[in-house]
Design brief:
The structure is a single chain. The protein is mainly α. It has two domains: 67 residues; 132 residues, no CATH class. Helix content is 65%, strand content 0%. Helix 1 packs antiparallel against helix 2, helix 3 crosses helix 6 and helix 4 packs across helix 8. The protein is elongated. The two termini are 39 Å apart. The C terminus is likely disordered.
Length: 220
Amino acid sequence: MSKRKQETDYAAALENSFKRWEELFTNGGSDSFWADGVNLNLVKSHIIYYKNQLSKQENSLLGLPDIYYHKTPPEVDCDYMACPEEIRENARKAMEAIDADENLHFIHEQYPTLSQQQVKQWNIPAILNYAENLRRAIREDDLVIMRRYKDPTRFLKSFKAAARQIQMPETIQKINGYLTACGGETDNISREDDVEECSETNLTEEEPQKELQLTLFWFK
């Protein structure tokens, strides 16, 4: 690769990094784990690197590009988050939508009737924790977690998919079989004892449904 080509590449990379820094600082990013401040300082490191690479070409006939002389951005507080009020408002609306979701209410109601095998297979604890994670983030003003709920659609889809699994005829049939074998009253079901004992004799393992797998994720 020629020196001229290298200079063009570094200049373009430097320009893109400046644009990226401005975008992050003004509008924020979508990182699920790190605040905007962390990513802003990372981009700043990229800017410094590209400037250093360009400075090595100072004796080039083409000289240094104009972007090289742009002021390097300052260090930012690692906890900095852009648009905090917008994030809080989106989280509040998401919490309202999640709390009002009928599928989530149904899952809560049916949870005691499910075997440990079904609970694990359908990731029910993770699904139920979606609402609690957001509620805790709002209470603690954790903007990084709240930002994950900017669009609650994917969470609502996971509730719908899990509720559909529970409502499948074969699932209902197994739940009825379980209740008959274990005494009938769901209020008296012990998740640690009765479910484990009865699930081994009355329930058989099924392959997870693709739709549920696609709508669940790691809680990034």
